[in-house]
Write a structure and sequence with these properties.
It is a single chain. By secondary structure, the protein is mainly alpha-helical. It has helices at residues 2-25, 35-45, 50-73, 81-119, 122-128, 133-170, 176-186, 189-215, 220-253. The radius of gyration is 21 Å and the shape is elongated.
Length: 254
Amino acid sequence: MLNEWLPHLKNYFQLNFSLLYWLLVAPFTGRGFKLAPIFRQMVFIGVRAAPMVALTAFSVGVTLAMQAAHSLQQLGAEIYVPDLVMVTLLREMGPVLIAVIVIGRSGSAVAAELGTMKVSEEIEALEVMAINPIQYLVVPRFLAMLVMLPALTIFGNYIGVLGGWAVCRFALNFNTAGYIMRALESANTWDLYSGMIKSAVFAWIIITIACNAGLHVEGGAEGVGQSTTAAVVQSLLAMLVMNAVLTGVFFFAG
């Protein structure tokens, strides 16, 4: 089992070191990256995922508010529903669930796209033309994901809080201003920052795993499918483990 994983881990770390070189060293040697491919990937990875993120976040906000209201009403403490919705979305549910959406939609698409290029020998053609595949294919996708996942997380947090407001306003007869004040008072800036740190780390994990899977496909069309599935599963597992680690770090550091 370990022997099977060692080549994959070696390829993954090599990809990360190459990424760091092209991001931090190459621009100072006159081999920078172009902005146009990055913006195209930002649209593909982030903007087109916004409707799915909005629907997911709104549903989560509504569900959190209803579940919290069900329990807190028995204690006569339904005034704390906005607190629970806001803090839970900012710290945990927002970054994690939106990362899951991006893995299922954008991460799988990147793995499949690069895998198809690999089996059709397009990547070899780039190397023949002295174009580095990491610089040309991976760096734009990496930077786009690093920008768009935190942006989608902030967007999703707003929509989730809106979902909580809908329940509080129409089911619990909350005043809109009262809901907003409770939500803002319950959260502090660190709650937002911790969610942003998580989403940035998740973005790194998701895009590097997807690109690594796509660049090392073997076995034609069947291999592309297997590699895409592996990329999604590995991204989900790595993201959930890293979420637990970061939550522990923030908990004990706080």
